[in-house]
Design goal:
The structure holds 2 protein chains of 2 kinds.
Chain A: H1 3-9, H2 14-23, E1 27-30, H3 39-47, E2 56-59, E3 69-72, H4 78-84, H5 93-103, E4 111-113, E5 124-126, H6 132-135, E6 149-150, E7 154-157, E8 170-173, E9 176-178, E10 183-186, H7 193-204, E11 209-214, H8 218-224, H9 234-242, E12 246-250, E13 256-258, E14 263-277, E15 291-303, E16 308-310, H10 320-340, E17 344-351, E18 356-361, H11 368-377, E19 388-393, H12 401-411, E20 417-424, E21 437-444, H13 466-479
Parallel strand pairs in A: 1-2, 3-16, 4-12, 18-19, 19-21
Antiparallel strand pairs in A: 2-3, 5-15, 6-9, 7-8, 7-11, 9-10, 10-15, 11-14, 12-13, 14-15, 17-18, 20-21
Chain B: E1 15-22, E2 25-32, E3 39-41, H1 46-49
Antiparallel strand pairs in B: 1-2, 2-3
Classes of the chains: A alpha+beta, B mainly beta.
């Protein structure tokens, strides 16, 4: 195993990863004094222009927040994702996809428990006089957000109807709006695990206690945003995929949390209560509306000494949101499709959390790709998110948009398009007919096959394969002035 | 009840939630509107907190809060 892979397996916390990134030139400290607004937003947006190589940026001189630190862009570039996976900077998106797809699963999970008294996250504990503003250097992420949001919080909760079941314990990223010194609202939808748990708690009058983890193991951050089965554990996936143990401990309110998180906020839902939440600049690049969302009362906060508040810039892409979850959205769709259709060769669902997806498939017969597309719509993520699907042949790389455009140009007929009207839709999709309901589009850009009467034109066959991939890399290195 | 006006819904009664201090000097103050739940910092640009400058597209109608849907209804 090479040095980078060993380093990646040795990560157990955000701090470890920042150190690794810094050593590779992929994390910087911004020590010039900044205003919470608009400076933090402006720097984050400027960084996210470089989706391939942007560094994480740690701010340690924020006006009005002396001594506090915040970091953005930890997962803000493909190079940072590559280093998390133990691969060198410059690894292509396609290679990263197959790296993740090859690791997919939770069979090799290694979960260890750290006694609460030894867990770094519990180094400092606040149980009375709680004021979130004392701990979190929050700021307005987009200018018309309804307040100060925690945009990259991993929320852990137990199923209120089956609280002893480890697998049904959910970890997900949900946006949280600070609603005063000791309260916050949480936005979710019924199809998300958290939405399901909130509705179950309110239906049965059961308490719902949660632990909000901020500044986490970078492997968990990607899995908290990944659509896996309800009874599968995000912790187990994160451990198996990182090929390394995950250290857990207990929060003060009995939830399994990461032992090395920077900050953990313990809270309890106020059953049946709602407060106005939003707008929030969301991943489609538009603001969500104002809605009435559940509110949680903070009961305690644990944090490491000199904690780092990790946040994200999200808005019109590319942003950290796209690099954080793009490949981890694509990989489960690929794994789920291949169970039924091993002819699927790759899935690119990088665009706006999969609102547009491109799937390559070995087309068995005329129309087969359309069947695969319909199966994709019934995967857990596809149910709500896969709005536009482009189906291409296996000889087209779905991560190379020039090739995809070639397939669209030369292999698509107008009647190869299917529109499925009035389907479920993500409520924040601005093109929805009404929030939560919209149309789906399938474009079959695969070639014609029997029993289709029209044959494929004879194709030019340029050289492809690992030799050509290696030559492409050699050209890029020479261009950068690096010896081969 | 305070006279502080909410930049989003124009209601009075906003609560002072926090003061950012450096060397015990107040650098900014965070307010929260008890009517529409808008939070803001008084050091923010006028495009976010300035009455008459802020985009009207993002105003909240304090007289008709029923128009905002409740999520996760049974």
């Amino acid at each position: 195993m090479n040095d980078l892979a060993n380093k990646a397996r040795g990560i157990s916390s955000l701090r470890d990863f920042l150190e690794l990134l810094e050593g590779e030139g992929q994390a910087i400290t911004w020590s010039e004094r900044v205003l919470p607004e608009p400076d933090l937003r402006n720097v984050a947006v400027a960084a996210s222009r470089d989706a391939n190589g942007a560094p994480a940026i740690l701010f340690d001189n924020i006006a009005g927040y002396p001594g506090k630190r915040t970091v953005v862009g930890v997962h803000g570039s493909w190079d940072n994702i590559a280093l998390l996976l133990g691969r060198p900077k410059g690894t292509t998106i396609r290679e990263l996809f197959f790296e993740i797809a090859g690791r997919w699963g939770d069979a090799e999970a290694q979960i260890s428990y750290v006694p609460e008294g030894q867990a770094p996250v519990h180094e400092c504990r606040v149980e009375s006089g709680i004021n979130l503003y004392d701990i979190l250097p929050v700021y307005r992420i987009n200018e018309y957000d309804g307040g100060f949001f925690m945009g990259k919080a991993s929320v852990a909760s137990r199923d209120p109807e089956d609280p002893d079941n480890f697998g049904k314990q959910n970890v997900g990223i949900y946006r949280l709006q600070v609603q005063g010194p000791d309260s916050f609202s949480l936005m979710t939808i019924p199809s998300h695990d958290m939405g399901r748990q909130i509705m179950a708690a309110e239906r049965n009058g059961l308490p719902l206690k949660i632990a909000v983890m901020l500044g986490n193991h970078p492997g968990l951050a990607v899995f908290a945003a990944t659509p896996i089965g309800y009874e599968e554990s995000e912790y187990a996936y994160a451990s198996a995929m990182m090929g390394a143990p995950i250290r857990l401990t207990k929060s003060g309110n009995g939830v399994d949390i990461l032992a090395d998180s920077e900050i953990v906020i313990e809270a309890e839902m106020q059953l049946g209560e709602r407060v106005l939440e939003g707008p929030f600049g969301e991943f489609p690049g538009s603001y969500s509306g104002v809605r009435k969302a559940p509110i949680f009362k903070v009961t305690a906060v644990s944090h490491r000494r000199d904690p780092i508040f990790e946040n994200i810039y999200i808005g019109r892409g590319w942003t950290e949101h796209d690099t954080l979850i793009g490949l981890h959205t694509s990989a489960p769709i690929y794994a789920q499709l291949r169970k039924d259709f091993p002819e699927v060769t790759a899935v690119n669902a990088l665009y706006q959390h999969g609102l547009t997806g491109i799937i390559s498939v070995k087309n068995r017969m005329a129309g087969f790709a359309k069947t695969v597309a319909l199966r994709a719509l019934s995967t857990p993520h596809g149910v709500m998110y896969l709005k536009n699907l482009i189906m291409v042949d296996a000889d087209v790389d779905p991560f190379d948009l020039n090739q995809v455009m070639w397939a669209l140009s030369t292999r698509t007929r107008a009647d190869d398009i299917i529109v499925l009207p009035n389907m479920p839709a993500v409520p924040i999709d601005p093109s929805a007919v009404v929030p939560g309901k919209g149309h789906r589009l399938i474009i079959d850009a695969t070639s014609y096959l029997r029993p289709d009467p029209i044959g494929e034109a004879h194709l030019v066959s340029p050289p492809t394969g690992p030799d050509i991939d290696a030559l492409s890399k050699a050209i890029r290195l020479l261009q950068q002035g690096v010896a081969k | 009840m305070s006279e502080t006006l909410c930049p989003r819904c124009s209601s009075t009664g906003a609560i002072e939630d926090y003061q950012g201090r450096e060397d015990n000097i107040v650098v900014w103050t965070i307010y929260r509107c008890v009517t529409c739940c808008f939070s803001w910092r008084d050091s923010e640009p006028a495009s976010t907190i300035g009455a008459g400058v802020r985009s009207a597209d993002f105003a909240v109608d304090a007289g008709n809060l029923d128009r905002y849907p409740k999520i996760l209804q049974q």
